[in-house]
Design a protein that fits this description.
Strand order of the largest sheet: 1-2-3-4-5-6-7-8
CATH topology: TIM Barrel
Number of domains: 1
CATH class: Alpha Beta
Shape: globular
Radius of gyration: 22 Å
CATH superfamily: EAL domain
Strand content: 15-25%
Length: about 270
């Protein structure tokens, strides 16, 4: 080696290569998220029926509404929608993606002539942010035509003050609240403190998780909600055993493969 040539360690070369690879992945991820913001139809949505629970004819029971969720095409970069949302959040783009997907979902629901409620899961970061001007017509159209219910999951309960502000914002839109399977996030005392402010229309219990029927926090949400007139909605009603479990928990409504699989357009 020439004496005037600077010495570079192998570990430094590897670190530089790793950094370059990380930057390349970040650029590709940003490009993908920006594409989905411009074309939210690439994520679906799919609509899963929510039905009144009926032990005699579960798949034929009346439809309360539809749950809309993103559909990640298997084998593609958008296969894992939860990971995609996490990456969008890291890039500071999750609000833009959420608004775009919400507007597209509203358009699909309204254009299909969908009846019943539309259940969706807004990202907590989106509350308090302004709707992008290019989406304003679709959002306003959906608010006027649809009966929307917003699911609040565990990450919505991290900041109680922000949670209350979000529910107040939803009330101005005419939305209803679904408390969705918040086991382990709050004590029974906290449950009863928050409930009068949240005033949920539904408490959702995921029967796909085996601990749910005996979980004390879930029981607290269910009992406190029933006291104020909310209904229990069971998730994961995939077979008759789950249907029986849902009915034993006092659930009036449910969704799962026994009740109907996702469809691209609600009927």
């Amino acid at each position: 080696m020439d004496a005037d040539t600077p010495w570079v360690s192998l570990s430094s070369v590897r670190a530089s290569a790793d950094l370059s690879a990380d930057l390349d992945r970040a650029r590709r991820t940003r490009g993908l998220v920006e594409q989905l913001i411009a074309q939210p139809s690439l994520l679906g949505p799919d609509f899963t029926p929510i039905r009144t629970l009926d032990a005699a004819a579960p798949a034929l029971a009346p439809v309360l509404g539809w749950k809309a969720r993103g559909r990640g095409t298997p084998g593609t970069d958008i296969a894992d929608t939860l990971s995609l949302l996490a990456q969008a959040a890291e890039l500071g783009l999750v609000e833009r993606l959420d608004w775009a997907f919400r507007a597209h979902t509203f358009d699909v629901a309204v254009d299909s002539g969908m009846t019943g409620e539309l259940h969706l899961t807004p990202e907590p970061e989106t509350f308090g942010t302004a709707c992008p001007p290019r989406l304003a017509v679709a959002i306003l159209r959906g608010r006027r035509a649809l009966s929307v219910c917003a699911e609040l999951h565990e990450d919505s309960f991290v900041d109680a003050r922000r949670l209350i502000a979000a529910t107040e914002e939803m009330r101005t839109w005419g939305w209803q609240v679904v408390v969705a399977d918040v086991s382990g996030t709050t004590s029974e005392q906290e449950v009863r403190r928050l409930l009068p402010s949240l005033r949920p229309a539904y408490v959702q219990i995921d029967l796909g998780r085996p601990d749910r029927p005996s979980d004390a926090t879930i029981a607290a949400w269910r009992d406190a909600a029933l006291e104020i007139g909310a209904a229990v909605l069971a998730l994961g009603v995939d077979d008759t055993a789950r249907l029986d479990a849902a009915l034993e928990l006092g659930a009036a409504y449910g969704r799962g493969t026994l009740l109907g699989r996702p469809v691209a357009v609600p009927s």
